[in-house]
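Hey,

Quick one before I head out. I ran the complex with nickel (II) ion overnight. Inputs first:
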Amino acid sequence: MTCYPDASQASSDRGSGADGGIDMSRTITIDPVTRIEGHSKITIQLDDRGEVVDARFHVTQFRGFERITQGRPVHEMPALMARICGICPVSHLIASAKAVDDILAVEPPPTGQDLRRIINLGQIVQSNALSFFHLSSPDLLFGFDADPAVRNILGVARQNPGLARDGIGLRKWGQQIIEWLGGKRIHPEGIVPGGVATPLTAEVRDRILAGVPEAIAAVERAIAWYKTDMLRWEDEAATFGNFRSAFMGLVDRHGNVDHYGGWLRVIDADGKFLADRVDPKLFNDYIGEAVEPSSFLKSTYWKAMGYPDGIYRVGPLARLNVADRMGTPRADEELEKFRWRVGRVAGSSFHYHYARLIDTLHAIEKVEELLRGPDILSKHVRSTAGINRNEGIGVSEAPRGTLMHHYKVDDDGIVQWANLIIATGHNNMAMNRSVLQVARRHVKGDTITEPMLNRVEAVIRCYDPCLSCSTHALGQMDLQIQLLAPDGKVLDELSR
Ligand code: MG
Ligand code: NI
């Protein structure tokens, strides 16, 4: 990692206030945040007394993916939507295929649904593994103040080779599921309107099952390692986005975590239901989207509580908080320990890491359960139909949280309008508040210090934002941090 101030801004603005007093009007900007997928900028606003008053996570690129879908035949939507993101194509395929099912007014056959579930869980495992092992474990292993030269996955491989190996193995297992069932690893095309393109073979089923014991062992080793080290991070957990908010996720009819379907459940910070057994297709009645000029990323909010009070979080932490149980034995055992350690409704976003591991364990167990189902090799995997509705909504759980696709089509099935709400949009207000909390704790004076920068980046990584998704842009991007004066002047600036 290299860390360099932008000379044109930082050097001229730092130490301004030449009329004797120190210019106390400031903003800090961090750009780019390393080890986050995508391009973004963080600004930290100071007041006259040099206190942090506001912090914002801006997403600065926009490619208008919702607009380019207009005029396309709706059958093409799943394959097209998979191209929004190279990180989580399967998540978009699933939500999109469900929205098209709705327009066709069909349900996929049960085996088709189960195969979709398995591919979705493969994506959960590989993406969670990337986030925990490759992106966040360096901070957890070496501490947030360690030399950036060792604080990366190569450093992890040297210091704790088993941990790095487990991360690589889990990711590979998840990717193979996607590849073997989906067709292609990066933009799988096996998921189609009405179900999936091809039935599962016994050979592929057995190949995936053969990897299950090692995948479970790998994530259980990571959970054990995480728990022995938890005390070291107590101080960080207290300020890493530790606040009261609502949480949202999908649960099945038993109240278990459901990554594919089920009902929308929203709880408040005390665990009281704000909504339960809500058909996810009705999400527009409950969720508002606020546009802020500073960012192309819309902030969603819980309508009944208004904007910005209706702040809620999604993703692994929210899934664990809203559910009664995970619904698989090993993950349920770990969920009990999780709740004993961090509370029934975990409030600190630091616990996304811990939750992500338990979410991963559950996903592996669930894949095994589905693969052992008596009808999993059935040839009936796809329903076909014409256009039967002019509007469709598909909702599923992506690795980062609840994903919503909403389309309107004409009678020929040509897309007229599309709206996507992605996990990073749901979490946008929470990420801003988390950056604010960390900045208040760590900003000292009018320069960006290394400890502060490390923690601002790390708190955002808790949410594992997928910025290529959130802006509906294509490809990879990067990020920046700015410290701003009350008058908006840039006091200090760093890019990585
Ligand atoms: Mg949208
Ligand atoms: Ni994505």
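The pocket of nickel (II) ion (ligand 2) is lined by residues 85, 87-88, 466, 468-469 (CB under 6 Å).

Talk tomorrow,
K.
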